[in-house]
Every structure is written in C-alpha cells, then in structure tokens.
Amino acid sequence: MAGGTAISGARAGLIALLSPAYLWLTAAIFLPLSAMLFFSLVTELPFGGAEWAFTLENYRAFFETPTYATLLWKSVRLGLIVTVVCLLVGFPCAYVLAKAIRGRAREALFLLVILPFWSNSLVRIFSWAIVLRGNGVLDLGLNALLPFEVDVSLMFTTHAIVIGLVHSYLPYVILTSYLALQAIDDNLIDAARSMGAGKPTILWRLVLPLSLPGLVAGAVLIFVPVVGAFMEPRILGGRVGTYYGTVIEDQFVAVYNWPLGAALSFILLAVVLFILAVASPMLKRAQA
Amino acid sequence: MARVSVEGIVKRYGTVAALDEVSLDFEDGGLFALLGPSGSGKTTLLRAIAGFVFPDRGRIRIGDQPVERVPVEKRDIGMMFQNYALFPNMSVADNVGFGLRVRKVGAAEERRRVGEALELVQLEGFGGRKPHELSGGQRQRVALARAIVTNPRVLLLDEPLSALDKALRVDMQFELRRIQREIGITTILVTHDQEEALTLSDRIGILRDGRLVQAGPPREVYNAPADLFAATFLGEANILPGGGAGIVVPEGVAPGAVLAVRPEAIAMTRTEPEGAGLSKCVGVLERRVFAGAMATCLVRREDGGEMKVVSRDQDIPAGLTEGDRLWLSWPVDKTLAIPPEG
C-alpha cells in the first residue's frame, strides 16, 4: 500500500509538472485550430448578427478552381527547393563547426549562425530587397569588382524568394545537423580511417547515416513553414510572388473571406501531414 | 605481419613534448605493452604508430617501409579503441566487413572472412545483430574481429579492456593472448593497468613525461627497474635506508644507488630470523588489511620508515595484531638496487 501511494504521489507530481505545458499547448494550438476548423465549415463569420450556416462550399472551391492546386504545387516545389538548398549549404557548415573547429572560434562562429534569429524577419527581408534590387548593393559591388559591366537585378524573381527563405531558415538545419554530428564519437571516424576508409567512404557510410535524424529534423522544420510562407514571396517576389501562402493571407487580410482562408489552410495542413506521413518510414529508419 | 620500429620520435604540442626522443623496437609477432600514467605519451606513441599523429621528428617503420608521413588509412593497421568504436548504424557483420568492403574484396570473400573472424572471437551467428544488442564483452570481441579481419601488418590496442569489469577483463586477457598467438600478429597495447601489462605482454615499455624509462620483458623490468619511477610504477617498492643495521647491501651495487625491496619478498617473524644471505630489520605492525588470499601489512621501522608487506594470510605469524613488534626479513638477492637518477 505504501508503495502504491508513493507511486501515485510521484504520478501526481509528474502531472503537476506537465500540466502548465499541456494547458498552454491546449490554449495556444488546440483552441485556435478548432476555431479555424469551425470557420472553414461556415458560410459567413458568425459575428455581428450575420446569417450563417454549415457548408462544405469552401473546400469545394479548392477543387473547382485549379489555380489553388497549381499554387499549392508551386509552394510545395518552393518548399522542396529551399529545403534542399538549406541542407546542401547547412550540412557542410555544421560539419565544420562540429568536427573541424574547436574552442573560442567555434563559439564565435556559432553566434554568427544564430545571429539572424536576433533580428526581426521583416527587417531581414527588406535588407535583402536592398541587396538584390537592380542598382542595389550586390549589383554595385559586383560592378565595382568585375572589369566588365554586369546587370544583376534579382529582385522580384523566384531566385530572390529562395535566397530570402534560405537565409531565414538556414540556422535550423545547421543547428539540428550540428547536434547530430556532435553526437558522433570521433573514435568512430578514427576507427573507419584505421580500416583504410577515405573521406568519401566515411562521409557516405558513417557520417551521413549517423546524422540523418538531424538532417530530417532540420528538413521538416524548414519545409513545413516554407510551404506556407507569404512574407518573403510577397516582398521579394513582387509580381511572381503569388504562392499558396499569399493567397491564404489575402483571404484573411484583403478579401476578408475567412471561411475560404481557413479551408485553404486546412487543405495545406492536410497536404503537409500527408507528405510527412509518406516520408515517415525514412524518418523511422533514420532513428533506428 | 611485420616488425615495427620507432626511432627518436618527437611530438610537441605547443611547448609540451608529448613524445621526447622515443626509440623502440617491436618484434615481429610479439605483444608489446606501453605502460605509463596518464600524460606519459603512451597514447600519443600509439597514435603516431597508427598514423593519426605525425611526429615532428624521427622515423617510424612498419616492416621495411618508413611510414612517418603515411596517413593512417594507407598504413594497413588494425586498431581497437577504448570504447570499441563500433559503428552503431551497422550490423556486427557490416562492422567487421567494413575494412574488407573498403578494400573491395567482393561479397563472397567478405562473407567468408567475416565468418572466419567472428569464429575466431567465438561470436559465430552474431553477424545480424546491432552493436547495441551486445554485451560489453561481446562488443569487445567484435571490435577485435574488426581490427584483425583485414590481416593488418600490426594490431594496435588502446586500453582495450579498461571498460570491462574485473572478472570479464581477466577472461578477455587470456582470450586476447590466445587470438594474438593464433594469428601471430605484431601487437602493441596501451594500458595504465600494470597487471594487464604484466600478464599479457612479451615485452613492456614504461613511459613517463614523453620519455621511455625502460623497456624489456616484464620479469626483467620488474626485477631490475631502471629507476625509482619504474620501480614504483610497475609494482610497489619499499625504499630502504642507505644500509642500516641488518640491511645488507648486495655486492656490486653502484655508489649512490637506492635500495628497495618488493612487498611480497618480505617475510614477517616474531623472533629474529636465522640464516645467511638475509637482510632484516625490526618494526611495529601498524595496520593489517585482509584482502582475500593476500593480506597487506604496514610496518613502521625503528628508524621511522614505513614498510609495506604483502603476504599470504597463513604465512603471517598466528595472533599477530596491530601494535606488535616483529622482524622483517628478505633474501639479499631480492634487494633491488636502483641506479641513481640521471
């Protein structure tokens, strides 16, 4: 009996410790999501005495207007491109930080990696606009260095959007890869070398498989928000910057068609969850 | 298999010399233990032979090939690490076969040699397991199989048994010795455990502060230590006063030499022992520590010095208790004459 009370006492303690976090998650995620789900199923917002009824019309709109699907595909493609670029740029960076640099230099470089988090994202995007626009910092800089005239105007192109998004999300993949790489015992690499393995073999058969969980975690952290991104496409993409995310944003802030915006959001959520579910066998294998 | 020789190698880290003019020969097929306290340079020496560290000066040869600038992956060595360093993402068979696959021996050949290596370490049928499904001793065997499967010219072991508990460690010492003899591979082992060095090796080398203090067969080093450090690091030694009453100085001892005697060479009696060729002194038993088959006694000599005696429990005079007066004696030829420093 005494043991039973001790255990239930410990359980009560655990529940007490867990409850603030779960209450917060309930309040911050579950309630708004429920509200959005409700909005996506009504004809009008039930505020100010408006007439409203339940309907699936908002979801039908997605399937009846091919533009939405086209834009969703465009956003998914953007998400994939940004994720791949972030992985290609971030992983080597994390590798150098984790395995090649030690001591003070590592701390300093690490600070530089997370520096973007310290500035407002809007400020970051507008500073990219200053760099990328014709006659901007990049254009002037290149022309000052190169002996021939170049005309660099990346502003309002897909490239500009990708550059801005990669800059915003790169730290995620560096941090997750760094943690995974840091956990790899240097003796493993030494052992592989002692067996005659060169650098490519060690990277391909040892370092990449062992850091896969970090790479996958970073990829998910990037892919999910980028698919729904609207700020970078809008500011850096201009005319070409119409994506699924910007359409949703328009429904909420410009057209005031919240039910449609909510429905489009849930379709995005479903598609992203579907993609993650399809990718999850790979995720599981990475963890094994 | 090959002979390994190291000649005058120096490795500095900043102003600290991790290795300072170390020269050593490792015979073909022998098992050599490098022994020393932490920071003595023994691991640096092993890593220099492996090729992880390039010496600033000096030569390293494996067989007839000078290798001091050859990187580790081209040296054809086998190495076992302290924590075994098994690849957690690969099965036992893939771990063992890693070096063979790097050498592109072909799938059939790989399977055959992995099977042979696992058989040698008595782990047949474990090929499909993952490292985390193995016990400490099994992991150690896998690491050994992985290190020898490529038939390397030399096998390097970095504190191979330190992660195992005592009983398993003793088993593995015999096992390691058996396998090493069976394949006749030149083996260099780093350890800080003197017992391990004594039981396993044909020859030992004692290092201190990056210098080689003494090298030779274990018995020789134990019975004729080159200096006070070697005498006290390998086993224990009671330092004797420079010829007190009853303590006989052996013949032919250089002037200035320090006399010492091993704790297990000393006999304890209640009365003055008779007989020629004995050194003896009187003391008071201060402490007696029972430790299974052996007992350790601390005895205070009349001149104030302390003597440690290790003796079988039944060899201690009956009823001897702390505070009793007793005689210590040992054969004169068991007296160690340690050359003066420098």
Could you name the key traits of this structure?
heterodimer, A: 288 residues, mainly alpha, MetI-like fold, 78% helix, B: 342 residues, alpha+beta, Rossmann fold, OB fold (Dihydrolipoamide Acetyltransferase, E2P), 2 domains
How would you describe the overall organization of this protein?
The model of chain A has no long low-confidence stretch (mean pLDDT 89). With 288 residues, chain A is mainly alpha-helical. Chain A has one domain: MetI-like fold, CATH 1.10.3720.10. Chain A has twelve helices and no strands. With 342 residues, chain B is α+β, with helices and mostly antiparallel strands. Chain B folds into two domains: 230 residues, Rossmann fold (3-Layer(aba) Sandwich), CATH 3.40.50; 101 residues, OB fold (Dihydrolipoamide Acetyltransferase, E2P) (Beta Barrel), CATH 2.40.50.140. Chain B contains eight helices and 18 strands. Chain B has a six-stranded mixed beta sheet with strand order 6-7-8-3-9-10, sandwiched between helices. Chain B has a five-stranded antiparallel beta sheet with strand order 13-17-14-15-16, with no helix packed on it. In chain B, strands 2-1-4-5 form a four-stranded antiparallel beta sheet, covered by helices on one side. In chain B, strand 9 and strand 10 form a beta hairpin. In chain B, helix 2 packs across helix 3, helix 2 runs parallel beside helix 4 and helix 3 packs across helix 4. The radius of gyration of chain B is 24 Å and the shape is elongated. Chains A and B meet through helix 8 and helix 9 of A and strand 6 and helix 2 of B.
In short:
With 288 residues, chain A is mostly helical. Chain A is built from twelve helices and no strands.
Write down how many β-strands of chain B occur, each being a DSSP E stretch of 2 or more residues: 18
CATH class membership of the largest domain in chain B: Alpha Beta
- Low-pLDDT segments of chain A: none
Strand content of chain B: 25-35%
